[in-house]
# Entry
Amino acid sequence: MAHIQLTDIRKSFGALEVIKGVDMEIRSGEFMVFVGPSGCGKSTLLRLIAGLEDITHGTLAFDGEVMNQLAPAKRGIAMVFQSYALYPHMTVFDNMAFGMKLAGQDKAERDRRVREAADMLQLTPYLERLPRQLSGGQRQRVAIGRAIVRDPRVFLFDEPLSNLDAALRVATRLEIAKLHRSMHNTTMIYVTHDQVEAMTLADRICVLRDGVVEQIGTPLELYENPNSLFVAGFIGSPKMNFLDGRFSEEMRAHTIGIRSEHLLIEHGGRWRGSVVHSEMLGSDSYVYVDIGTSEPIVVRQEGTATLKPGETIALSPIEHELHRFDRDGRAIGRGLMKGAT
Ligand SMILES: Nc1ncnc2c1ncn2[C@@H]1O[C@H](COP(=O)(O)OP(=O)(O)OP(=O)(O)O)[C@@H](O)[C@H]1O
# Structure
């Protein structure tokens, strides 16, 4: 259990500054997810918190205690990486118990903790197996189990699911959500590229851009009220549609944004266009429509889309769901402006 405070954290590699003054508070027991484009500094920020990189400037504190100079092993953290790095010649049990053995914990306690973690992660039937006799998802659960038994104050995950196939990712994502509920006192920080992981796991998401924090909020806050074009375009799948000034004149915005589920295909709709392509996902469909913007806009329709490429259709936005952005990409409000026609 730790409350984490980052104050004006900066990190340079030689002359290159990659973390450029980050202020952030992560509450005790919170699940914080870092997202952002490749190279924005997510992993570096996590490694600074872990103590795997030195902080160039600023203060990192856990529960008010400054961590900057403290060795990683003394911080009470456990980290799970993309590669599981299990010892190939050791059983699952020994892999999980090894750290405690090194720390001199007695056998009965090691046994108890490993069994408890194995139970939590449904690994009990595999305790005597070697890593190579496990699936990728099971191996990653062993890596998580090995971290749990250390009873960390802070749990750090760096893209732990990115080596797994789609089905295993979902299953292991659910395990991690359950784990957070059962370890509700443990602060967790999780780096991912995956929208769904970020939206489903996070209490709050931090969107990083080029070494600075762009916005921090709950998944729904970021989805519904992004404070910039950048966050609007980054959070949500499919991506928010952006329409330029030609479409937004009466809204007095430089750009307007509208999510795929807030567009209606209807006769006499406001924008005319032609269908480029439809994707059927089973429960719903994405229809791509060329209305004269630089990229086709995407419309979500329930069920199976029956529209054919080349068909002309008309679309209307649900007006109060529009997002308006100024010339600098800052959000300036939702819906039509009062008094606009
Ligand atoms: N040890 C290092 N030496 C020099 N530059 C580094 C080092 N580690 C990271 N960088 C640089 O710092 C920047 C941020 O890297 P980082 O790995 O934190 O990004 P990221 O957001 O995690 O990216 P990705 O999503 O691709 O993993 C990048 O420009 C990277 O090249």
